Amino acid sequence: MDQRPDLPSTAPESAPTGTRAPAPRPASSSPNTDEHGHEHVLYSVEDGVATITLNRPDAMNALTILMKAALLEALERARDDAGARAVLLTGAGRGFCAGQDLREHAGNLEAGVGLDNTVRAHYNPIILTITGMGKPVIAAVNGIAAGAGASLAFACDFRVAADGAKFAMAFSGIGLAPDSGASWTLPRLVGPARARELLVLGEPVGAARALELGMVTSVVPAGELTARARELAVRLAQGPTVAYGAIKQALDFSAAHSLEDSLDVEADLQDACAKSEDHHNATRAFLAKERPVFSGR
Known about the structure:
Elements: E1 41-46, E2 49-54, H1 65-80, E3 86-91, H2 102-110, H3 118-132, E4 137-141, E5 144-146, H4 148-155, E6 158-162, E7 166-168, H5 182-190, H6 192-201, E8 205-206, H7 207-213, E9 218-220, H8 225-237, H9 241-254, H10 259-274, H11 277-287
Parallel strand pairs: 2-3, 3-4, 4-6, 5-7, 6-9
Antiparallel strand pairs: 1-2, 7-8
């Protein structure tokens, strides 16, 4: 059955089509804290960029249930935040994200609950929120990205990596299949044969090699990562947000549909984008030989 993507909304005050309306949120940072009052995921907005920081540096930002719930909440907040036109995802300290917290996982195994449904309850919604967001999402990979942590980066639209960053598809090393969309995103980045190699062997891939394989968008000196990733995020936040969302929808749809169906969806998306303020203003600017200024509407 032909399933068309939701068309992009051109009204800035409304939530993206197909998503729930944003619930009232506290003006302060995320309420998801541990018993010591430590926030495991940080959220801030500046210059139209929502920055989401995984904040367990002592554990290389390994993901606990609390942290996964906080990350999903932060991503939903960014999706619904009218002041955010691009999203920057990064990690505090030396690592981007080491994947699942294995201490917590070992406790679940000992308790006889296995994975405790975390793939369906946590990882899948996180990945779908990233890929379905009508805004560009940039991963600033500052260190190790392993397992689900690597999958988080692969789900983003752009990946800017520090020159010392590493990616490790660590699933097979602990006797597990891939999750968090790696079996879908990785082949589309590096090709099916290379993805099979990376997933089966699980050997770490350095930043330079990751760039050669197409796993990352760019590699920069570690000391410049924050500035360079933010520069890209601000550039995207100043761009035609409605068109960016339509591009993401068109690419996702075409990945699993025929050319004929994809042409149809492209026409629908073009019709929706043609109604946006940004398209009208940019067309006038082009004819006047002026640089367009995009409002995201």
